[in-house]
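Practice problem: predict the structure.
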Amino acid sequence: MTTITLVLGDITRESADAIVNAANSSLLGGGGVDGAIHRRGGPEILEECRRLRAAHLGGGLPTGQAVVTTAGRLDARWVVHTVGPVFSASEDRSGLLASCYRESLKAADGLGARTVAFPAISTGVYRWPMDDAARIALETVRAARTSVEEVRFVLFDQRAYDVFAARIG
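Answer:
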């Protein structure tokens, strides 16, 4: 059974087998979590992302999918990059958000990762409401068939932490 823990802090400071990056589809860095992971992890992450784009992801990484690179200078072995959906009040994209967590865990399983640190995917510039994002994240991880022993949600601010904590029970 997978243990779920919550941490208030900076995901780039976490020690885990795999750190999940809330990437944009280009895989070439950006703002928020994506920019922070690329800055702290160093150029090795960007180099591998460029190779992935050149090899088979010429159009970018599709929303809800996941790919793996080195973690560079992060205290992890790998970075699992996943592209969350932009929130829409008129279209249900919750399946795509759940897919980010499932596909990231599947990638982590393929690597033999035992600990995985996740951010709250899509809750920044993609504007997914935190309470709904926490519900989807926790339900998806709880239902996942995975060999990952610990899933750690690393939440950047107290508000996000409190929302996840209220949902974790």
